[in-house]
Amino acid sequence: MRAAVLRTYNEPLSIEDVPDPDCPPDGVVLRTIACGICRSDWHGWVGEHPRVKPGQIGGHEYCGEVVEVGRDSRWAKGDRVVAPFILACGACPSCQSGHQNTCPNQRLPGFIEPGAFAEYVAVPMDHNLARLPESLSPMVAAGLGCRVTTSWHALTGRAALQAGEWLAVHGTGGVGLSAALLGKALGAHVVVVDVVREKLDHALSLGIDAAVMAGDDTAARIREITGGGAHVSVEALGIAATVNSSLDCLRALGRHVQVGMPVGHTAWMNIDMSTVYARNLALFGTRGMPSWRYPSLLGLITAGVVDMSPLIAREVALSDTSAELAAFNGPTPPGMAVITDFGG
């Protein structure tokens, strides 16, 4: 099969013919229909993700068609499914208590095991998979493995965003724009922040209530717009400037949710804990989504309550993956790229 392989950090991926994956006894092999290109992939490509090593096939936002089933699989050939990027064991105390995204035995295609920047991908522990609704585009469904599910769980499983509250979103890439659109679907008022005016205008065109250019007065502008501060703030970049802005834009008893991945040189940062203390703020970390929550999100999308298609800016070929990753080295335009051509 064709795959895009990391050989050297921050250099173009190598498009190679590699062996087809073996089918896990408790899983399936999928023909990859679509795979998103995510900022988390970029963290691995530049060498800042601690688990991604040379030789890795990336890609963790994927959906596909079952072409081979293991002896213990509940799926059948021809089934179309979407996979969370965290594959949980289902048997440990974390999984049994409903927190599969914190499973200590988790499997991570795209980070440790071969991922979906390839024609085929093996998926172990396939009880984590969800059936792809016929009405849902595979391009949109690919984002349900990471950016959309992560945002959904951040808002509903962690911060408990309520209708009528103000939500601030710092960064309008894939996960940030997902959070903004889902926040509106939940009945919140939403203000977004970015350094790219085009991305703010794009968000406003989708019905987002307000937009702020990032700068020294970002938090003050949000407090003004929201009449005293946001109730919930999502940080979607993982850097100190936006983390502190997210904290400072909150009203008393506000909730900050850390969605952006702080790795490499941003793993440790200076945080204004005085604001946390003085305003009685709550800080939530979040990563992924328990797989049992897929029906709540899929139902929202298939019922037409929220349209996630504006997340997708372009369909690309496998050979274009390196250029898309390199684009994350600087400010990016609105929307995400999804690989749909694995022969090109």
TrEMBL record:
<dbReference type="Pfam" id="PF08240">
    <property type="entry name" value="ADH_N"/>
</dbReference>
<keyword id="KW-0862">Zinc</keyword>
<dbReference type="GO" id="GO:0004022">
    <property type="term" value="F:alcohol dehydrogenase (NAD+) activity"/>
</dbReference>
<comment type="similarity">
    <text>Belongs to the zinc-containing alcohol dehydrogenase family.</text>
</comment>
<keyword id="KW-0479">Metal-binding</keyword>
<dbReference type="GO" id="GO:0008270">
    <property type="term" value="F:zinc ion binding"/>
</dbReference>
<dbReference type="InterPro" id="IPR020843">
    <property type="entry name" value="ER"/>
</dbReference>
<dbReference type="Pfam" id="PF00107">
    <property type="entry name" value="ADH_zinc_N"/>
</dbReference>
<dbReference type="InterPro" id="IPR011032">
    <property type="entry name" value="GroES-like_sf"/>
</dbReference>
<dbReference type="InterPro" id="IPR013154">
    <property type="entry name" value="ADH-like_N"/>
</dbReference>
<dbReference type="InterPro" id="IPR036291">
    <property type="entry name" value="NAD(P)-bd_dom_sf"/>
</dbReference>
<feature type="domain" description="Enoyl reductase (ER)">
    <location>
        <begin position="8"/>
        <end position="339"/>
    </location>
</feature>
<dbReference type="InterPro" id="IPR050129">
    <property type="entry name" value="Zn_alcohol_dh"/>
</dbReference>
<keyword id="KW-0560">Oxidoreductase</keyword>
<protein>
    <submittedName>
        <fullName>Alcohol dehydrogenase</fullName>
        <ecNumber>1.1.1.1</ecNumber>
    </submittedName>
</protein>
<dbReference type="InterPro" id="IPR013149">
    <property type="entry name" value="ADH-like_C"/>
</dbReference>
<dbReference type="InterPro" id="IPR002328">
    <property type="entry name" value="ADH_Zn_CS"/>
</dbReference>
